[in-house]
From TrEMBL:
PANTHER family: 23S RRNA (GUANOSINE-2'-O-)-METHYLTRANSFERASE RLMB (PTHR46429)
Phylogenetic placement of the source organism: Bacteria, Pseudomonadati, Pseudomonadota, Alphaproteobacteria, Caulobacterales
Stored InterPro entries: Alpha/beta_knot_MTases, Ribosomal_eL30-like_sf, rRNA_MeTrfase_TrmH, SpoU_MeTrfase, SpoU_subst-bd, tRNA_m1G_MTases_N
GO cellular component, one term: cytosol
Name under which the protein is recorded: 23S rRNA (Guanosine(2251)-2'-O)-methyltransferase RlmB
Highest taxon, organism lineage: Bacteria
C-alpha cells in the first residue's frame, strides 16, 4: 500500500509541506529554540530521557486548538503520525505550521510516560497570557480565580468548564500554578488555547484591583452558612476556588465579599474541586440570566 505522501504526490505533483523523520533535514520554522546568533538553525539536542511536559501539548483537541490559536503562528514543532498528517492536510488545519511525520512509538518516547497523544504532539513555548486589566474591562460576566491549585488535571478541567459556561477568563498566581501545557492542556480539551489567563503576583491585590473595576468576589467554602445560590446575583462576579487541602487562604478570603458553599443533601460532603467549580460556574451563569 502506498503512503499518504506518495499518493498525494502522484495526485498533485507538488512537494508536501511535511516529511518523515530521517528523510533529510527537518523542515521546520525557526523558533527561539532553534535559532543561532546569526539567525540560522542550530543542531537540536537529543531528546532527554525524561521529557519536559511543560514544553509539549499532546492529544487531538489540545493540538488542533493550538494550531488554530493566532498566538502560536510561526512557532512550535508539530509532530504527528501519518494518518493524522493526512487529516491535517486534508482539512487544512496546519495554519502555516510544518508537519513532521513520526511513528506512534517514537512519538510516545518524546512524551511523559502514560501520555495519550492520539497521534499528535506539539512542542511549544509558554503562552504569555493577558493582563488583569484585559479581563476586568468591561465589568460583566464571571471570572474564575484559582488560589494555589496545583493539580494539572483539576486545573485543566476547570478551564474546560469555565469556557463551556462562558467565563471571561482565569486568574492564577504566577508562582504556584502549573504551566498551561502537558497533562493540564490535555484535561482542558483545548480550552487553555481559547480562554484568556492572567498570571498575577498577588491574588489579594488582584481582587482589590478587580473591585476597583466593579467586580465582587465570592469565595468557595464548604463550612459557610451562606449557600452559593444565596450569594450570587447578576453583578460581575469573581468565583474564587481554593485548593482541595487548604481551601481559600485567609488573606484571599478577606478580600471576598462573601464565602459560600454548595449544598450537598446526600450527606457525602466532598466534591472534587473541578466538579465544585463546574457547579459554581453553572450557578453563576444562571444568576446572571445566561444559563439556558
Amino acid at each position: 500500500m502506498s503512503s499518504f505522501r506518495e499518493r498525494n504526490d502522484r495526485k498533485t505533483g507538488k512537494k508536501q509541506s511535511f516529511q518523515k523523520r530521517g528523510e533529510g533535514r527537518l523542515d521546520r520554522p525557526q523558533t527561539p529554540a532553534t535559532q543561532g546568533r546569526g539567525g540560522g538553525e542550530t543542531e537540536r539536542k537529543p531528546a532527554r530521557s525524561r521529557p519536559d511536559a511543560d514544553n509539549f501539548l499532546w492529544g487531538r483537541h489540545p493540538v488542533l486548538a493550538a494550531l488554530a490559536n493566532p498566538a502560536r503562528r510561526g512557532s512550535g514543532r508539530l509532530m504527528v503520525t501519518e494518518d493524522r498528517a493526512e487529516e491535517i492536510q486534508r482539512e487544512n488545519l496546519a495554519n502555516g505550521h510544518r508537519i513532521e511525520v513520526v511513528d506512534s512509538v517514537a512519538l510516545g518516547r518524546m512524551l511523559p510516560a502514560g501520555a495519550v497523544h492520539q497521534g499528535m504532539a506539539f512542542k511549544v513555548q509558554p503562552l504569555e497570557g493577558v493582563a488583569l486589566e484585559d479581563l476586568a474591562e468591561p465589568a460583566e460576566g464571571v471570572i474564575v480565580m484559582l488560589d494555589q491549585l496545583t493539580d494539572p488535571q483539576n486545573v485543566g478541567a476547570i478551564f474546560r468548564s469555565a469556557l463551556a459556561f462562558g467565563a471571561r477568563g482565569i486568574v492564577v498566581q504566577d508562582r504556584h500554578s502549573p504551566a498551561l501545557a502537558g497533562a493540564l492542556a490535555k484535561a482542558s480539551a483545548g480550552a487553555t488555547e481559547r480562554l484568556p489567563c492572567a498570571r498575577v503576583t498577588n491574588l489579594s491585590r488582584a481582587l482589590e484591583k478587580l473591585a476597583d473595576y466593579g467586580w465582587r468576589a465570592i469565595g468557595m467554602d464548604g463550612e459557610s452558612d451562606l449557600t452559593l445560590e444565596q450569594a450570587l446575583d447578576a453583578r460581575p462576579t469573581v468565583i474564587v476556588m481554593g485548593s482541595e487541602g487548604d481551601g481559600v487562604r485567609r488573606l484571599v478570603a478577606e478580600h471576598c465579599e462573601a464565602m459560600a458553599r454548595i449544598p450537598m443533601p446526600g450527606g457525602f460532603e466532598s466534591l472534587n474541586v473541578s466538579n465544585a467549580a463546574a457547579i459554581a460556574l453553572y450557578e453563576a451563569a444562571r444568576a446572571q440570566g445566561r444559563a439556558s
